[in-house]
Q: What sequence folds into this?
């Protein structure tokens, strides 16, 4: 529970925006399938983060890898928006597309993420090489906390029927997709760190 | 009201409550642990020999120009950067250690490895040292050569704190903030070891 709360607490830190912003973009773009997209995102991010913490993942992505990850991520966001267009009808099962987008974007985000290592996350990371799979649940709990704003956006239409109007409005999906495409493009040209740096520089911390 | 909606309302209230708790919770940095006196416990294991610290782009707060000039004593080596929130949280404890043990053989070297371009500017680093009250030697690892050498295998994080004994062996290695009790105890015990 404490690690989940530390994840929530990390939401106010700019270094967590690198995880939160893609999650929010995904939820907005996925519309009615926001829940499955977010679950895929958090699960994939947790697995990649766990692997990185334990030294079981690749090094930082190079130029070509970043290009591929960015292009694929941007394409998935475009696909989510395109597939929700009422006038076109759904070409692809939206649930599968949302789940796939969540997995890919979550994994990409976690690969590029440089976490704010507080005491409890530090305890996970320090023990990760030896703890094996037992480090995965607390990593998942931390990321679930760090993406809590996206969770709130996902729950709101379910809890508040009037919020479905906002969720299902075409502009919402466009905003999410636009944000996601922008993130994908900055990853593709290896400028994602610069965006995060600007957020850090202008933060009040 | 359907069950799904009830559950969603409850969950949403819990989520909003958690976000509000975060927004209104204290921003105080955690207090450093009180400095520990040496205790007779199990020997502090030697983790591995420390890699070299080389090719710095400059030094601040010292007349030294190489790591070797500061060696042969118990040394805390911390990889940090001034824009890192969690790094800054560790500075109070380091300052207390430096004040307590600085004249008893402890050295601290802050290896500044910038994460972003604005952190690479030496003038920005120098200004940050004043703002953050960092008085121990700081080595500028602008290209992160040492940051990558010391943290290989893709597990590279800020802050990362090592304690080296007088022989240059790593006796403490911690990622992130926290573990102040263990850090302080390790330093105290190593300083008390016969040379």
A:
């Amino acid at each position: 529970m404490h690690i989940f709360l530390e994840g929530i607490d990390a939401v106010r830190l700019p270094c967590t925006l690198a995880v939160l912003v893609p999650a929010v973009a995904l939820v907005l773009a996925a519309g009615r399938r926001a829940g499955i997209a977010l679950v895929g995102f958090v699960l994939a991010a947790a697995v990649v983060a766990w692997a990185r913490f334990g030294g079981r993942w690749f090094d930082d992505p190079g130029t070509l890898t970043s290009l591929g990850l960015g292009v694929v991520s941007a394409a998935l966001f475009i696909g989510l928006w395109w597939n929700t267009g009422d006038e076109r009808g759904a070409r692809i099962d939206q649930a599968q597309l949302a789940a796939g987008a969540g997995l890919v974007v979550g994994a990409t985000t976690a690969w590029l993420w440089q976490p704010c290592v507080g005491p409890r996350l530090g305890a996970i990371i320090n023990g990760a090489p030896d703890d094996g799979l037992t480090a995965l649940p607390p990593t998942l709990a931390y990321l679930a906390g760090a993406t809590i704003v996206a969770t709130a956006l996902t729950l709101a239409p379910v809890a508040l029927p009037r919020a479905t109007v906002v969720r299902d409005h075409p502009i919402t999906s466009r905003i999410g997709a636009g944000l996601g495409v922008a993130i994908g493009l900055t990853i593709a040209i290896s400028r994602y760190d610069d965006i995060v740096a600007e957020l850090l520089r202008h933060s009040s911390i | 009201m359907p069950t799904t909606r009830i559950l969603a309302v409850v969950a949403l209230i819990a989520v909003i409550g958690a976000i509000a708790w975060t927004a209104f919770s204290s921003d105080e940095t955690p207090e450093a642990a009180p400095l520990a006196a040496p205790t007779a416990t199990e020997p502090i294991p030697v983790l591995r020999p420390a890699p070299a610290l080389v090719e710095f782009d400059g030094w601040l707060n010292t007349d030294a120009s190489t790591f070797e000039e500061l060696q042969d004593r118990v040394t805390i080596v911390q990889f940090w950067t001034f824009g890192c929130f969690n790094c800054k949280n560790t500075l109070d404890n380091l300052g207390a250690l430096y004040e307590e043990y600085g004249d008893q053989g402890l050295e601290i070297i802050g290896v500044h490895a910038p994460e972003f371009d604005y952190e690479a500017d030496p003038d920005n680093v120098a200004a940050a040292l004043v703002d953050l009250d960092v008085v121990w030697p700081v080595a500028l690892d602008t290209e992160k050569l040492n940051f990558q050498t010391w943290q290989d295998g893709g597990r590279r994080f800020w802050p990362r704190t090592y304690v080296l004994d007088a022989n240059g062996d790593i006796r403490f290695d911690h990622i992130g903030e926290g573990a102040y009790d263990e850090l302080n105890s390790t330093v105290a015990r190593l300083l008390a070891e016969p040379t």
Remarks:
- Chain A touches chain B through 47 residues (CB under 8 Å).
